[in-house]
Amino acid sequence: MNTVRRLGAFLKPYRHWAILAPLLMLLEVAMDLLQPRLIQRIIDQGIAQLDMALVVRTGVLMVGVALIGVVGGVGCTVFSVLASQGMGTDLRSTLFRRVQALSFGNLERLETGQLITRLTNDVTQVQEAVSMLLRIMVRAPLMMIGSMMMAILTSPRLALMLLLLIPFVLGILAWMINKAYPLFGKVQERLDALNTVLQENLAGVRVVKAFVRAQHENRRFGAVNDSLMGQTIRATRMLAVTMPAVMMALNLGVVAAIWFGGVQVTRGGMQVGELVAFTNYLMRTLMSLMMASMLVMRFARAQASAERIREVLDSVPDVQSRPGARADLLPQGQVTFENVSFSYDHDGREPVLQGISFTAEPGQMVALLGATGAGKSSLVHLIPRFYDVTSGRILLDGVDVRDLDPAALRRSVGIALQESVLFTGTIRDNIRYGRPAATEEEVIAAAQAAQAHDFIVQFPDGYDTVLGQRGVNLSGGQKQRIAIARALLIRPAVLILDDSTSSVDVETESRIQDTLKMLMRGRTSLVIAQRISTVLNADKILVLDGGRVAAAGTHAELIAASPIYQEIYASQLGNGGAANG
How does strand 425-426 pair with strand 466-467? Predict the structure, then answer.
């Protein structure tokens, strides 16, 4: 019920359509219920008494009643679609905004494939269920109740058989609902797995082709596809049992009505028209139940989807703004780590970082070195609060970052990642992503600082060049330089370069570093690099090992005192050789 109330709130803005649709359906049902009585009138009064005028008048009346019913049915369909589509649109928008508000940890737990399914297929299931609820699931009970009442009025004695048939059919429906719900929940889980494999394959299609793994991916996709098919078959197999049982009840009811009614007609206790009308009402009653049984599967699946949607709506971001969080700080760029420890599961059992303490002063360039998995990226991701520390604290100009508004904090921190994510659109739009109002001169200046301007102007459309999905028409180094320009354009107090020049040649990287020295004067830079040549002139170098600071100092200090640093230096620049690329 909590799920129904939660999602029902999205229907409130369209409640006028949601009210009109059932009312118009009520009109259609009322017109349909009149038809058997009019047929009874034609048989018992018109045909039996050879009154053709009555037959014609009643026939014209039936046509008029049918037309009124058509108006009600069409109106119900139109308004139910308006209500359900509006609700679905708002629900998708709310889910998307919720996803945007979630922290990295939340998104990692929910996974991309699952989120895509929940924002598309699951919302569609709920949307279609609402549309059917306002039409068919309104029609079915109204028709059933109305037909039962009219059947009782037509022949109270024959109506007694409804007391046997209806509980039998309702029992079948209850059993079906109980069995179908968990089955369709598993169908959606299999769809999650399918979307995850599909998304990974499309994103990594170049790797698949480069390593000739198409057959492996075909088998992998085939496995999840077959799993989805198998689970869907198991769920829909319910119909193979349910529908014949309901049809059997319907046919038995009709046979019984004709049998016992025929006996009464021959004895003079009932007219033929009454028997025809009663049989018609009986069929409408049982057909309404059969219609409901067909829709149970749809609603069982919609219920499973609704629960999955509610899970996203109820997700609480791991990173929360504290009451009174400051949004007015104009940071100078001093970054201080005080005994910081961090683990992704937040229970501290598998720490990624342990006891990290250092200070980066405004104007300083702090470099982070260490083997893969040493915790370098995790460390810099804590500064803009992509994650919160497990213990200790991080200060920006002496203020705990948890006391700052996350949006204000992130506007002060520019970050360029090793995997440069670009969006479909022009190069200019990608550079201005963090500052849409930036002027053309500012965009060009940022591109020049990132050594991107020269290759951009070589394109026929220059800064108006439209990038393909994820910047597919650029090289890795070009994408990284645009990402750096994007980070520089926001004029950050703290600039984080997370191995963001790994695809750039040494000469270009050197020019970028020289430009950054000028641009970041008075501001703080934290640079993760695999090439030690990148950080030789850093004001402070932190060597991470196993999530701890194994050594800290300048290049001269570390080359003299740190075995780990000496080993890294020797492996890349030993004997005066050039840096390994």
Answer: antiparallel
| Domains, in order of start, for the chain | 7-313 (1.20.1560.10), 328-412+493-581 (3.40.50.300), 419-491 (3.40.50.300)
**Listed residue (571, 544, 545, 539) closest to 557, CA to CA:** 539
26 φ/ψ angles, rounded to the nearest 5 degrees = -60, -40
Mean pLDDT along residues 405-417: 86
3-class secondary-structure state, position 505: coil
Q: Is 552 helix (H, G, I), strand (E, B) or coil?
A: strand
Which residue in 174, 169, 144 sits closest to 250, CA to CA? 169
In sequence order, which residues have a C-beta less than 8 Å from that of residue 278 and are 6 or more positions away? Answer: 151, 154, 155, 158, 159, 257, 261
d(CA 334, CA 395): 8
Query: For the residues 391-406, what does the mean pLDDT come to?
Result: 91
Residue for token pair 């206790």: 269
pTM of the model: 0.71
Cα separation, 507 vs 523, whole angstroms: 24
Read out DSSP for 507-541? HHHHHHHHHHHHHTTTSEEEEE-SSGGGGTT-SEE
The answer to whether residues 103 and 317 touch, using CB atoms and an 8 Å cutoff, is yes
**Taking a C-beta distance cutoff of 8 angstroms, is the pair 524, 335 a contact?**
yes
